[in-house]
Amino acid sequence: MKQVIVIKILLLTLFGGTVFLVTAQKKKGWTLVWQDEFNYKGLPDAKKWGYENGHVRNQEQQYYTHARKENIAVNNGLLTITGNKEIYPNKAYKKGSKEWQQKDSLAQYTSASINTDGFAGWQYGRIEVKAKLPHGGGIWPAIWMLGTNGQKIGWPGCGEIDIMEFIGNHPTDIYGTIHYGDTAQRHRSSGSKITDFTLQNDFHVFAIEWDKDAMDLFFDNKKFHHFVIDSAGNGNNNPFRKPFYLLINLAMGAEWPGPIDDTVLPQQFIIDYVRLYKKKNG
After folding, report:
1. Which pLDDT tens digit goes with each residue over 27-81?
2. What H or E segment, with its residue span, contains residue 139?
3. Is 128 annotated as catalytic?
4. Around 181, how many Cα atoms within 13 Å sit in the side-chain half-sphere?
5. Could you give the CA distance from residue 63 to residue 2 in angstroms, rounded to a whole number?
6. Residue 56 DSSP class
7. Which domains does the chain have, with CATH numbers?
8. Each residue's pLDDT tens digit, 99-108
9. Catalytic residue flag (residue 52)
10. What DSSP line would sit under 78-95, residue for residue?
């Protein structure tokens, strides 16, 4: 009799968990159109995600590796990006070069950056990511977007949407920023920050709701920044009336986050899910 009761409890728990998962993905007024729940094991889904590789931007110190389990892996329903202190060969090295991406034969840090470029891009909707942040000096995780036409017209003309940026030297602040170019392609931006004292202890939901008129940035369903699309120009040439792709990365070092505190490494940026919703009848 006890065995039957135990089995029933287990089935009810499993069934209830499934119902909760489905319900959690439903939002009134929105339709779920793309997602990665990371309910598999290994590397990120190669049909959804690509990689940045090498020293990429901002004179950051980490070297982004490609499909390397030491820096990125999916397990137990979570995607984990790991920033490590380690020696790693720089494929872009050129003897005698003074360019920051090329001058060193060996990188001192590794990490990972994934994106949906070439796989999926979106124009308007709600993009929602549930994540737990790393911490420490020099740490710089981000959830952000770039215009899919970036290779053609460059930055800032393609636009950039920073849904979430965090730097370890500001351990209670989340930043959200919209970047774009003016008529002369000079960089312009609009952003805000929100403060929370549980950033490294808990998972939080970072999101943007975006339509042809405005963008709103959210932290755990609290709106902390509003941006009027026409601020970046009228009409269809506005970058924020065109498709964008998503990036998730763990950067380290560079001017803004400051020096890396080696004593806190390795650090992990943990993603529970990524979801894209479209407005119903919109």
Report:
1. 889 999 999 999 999 999 999 999 999 999 999 999 999 999 999 999 999 999 9
2. strand 139-147
3. no
4. 16
5. 55
6. -
7. 31-279 (2.60.120.200)
8. 999 999 999 9
9. no
10. EEEEEEEEEEEE-TT--T
The residue from 86, 165, 209, 255 that is catalytic is 165
Considering only residues 254 and 235, tell me which one the structure prediction assigns the higher pLDDT: 254
- Three-state secondary structure readout of 216-270: EEEECCEEEEEEEHHHHCCCCCCHHHCCEEEEEEEEECCCCCCCCCHHHCCEEEE
> Which position among 52, 60, 128, 160 bears the catalytic label?
160
**Which H or E run includes 29?**
none
Consecutive H or E run containing 16: helix 2-24
C-alpha distance across the termini of the chain, in Å: 54
Among candidates 36, 54, 57, which has minimal Cα distance to 119? 36
Cα 82 to Cα 28: distance, rounded to the nearest angstrom: 35
Q: What percent of the chain has pLDDT over 90?
A: 85
pTM here is 0.91
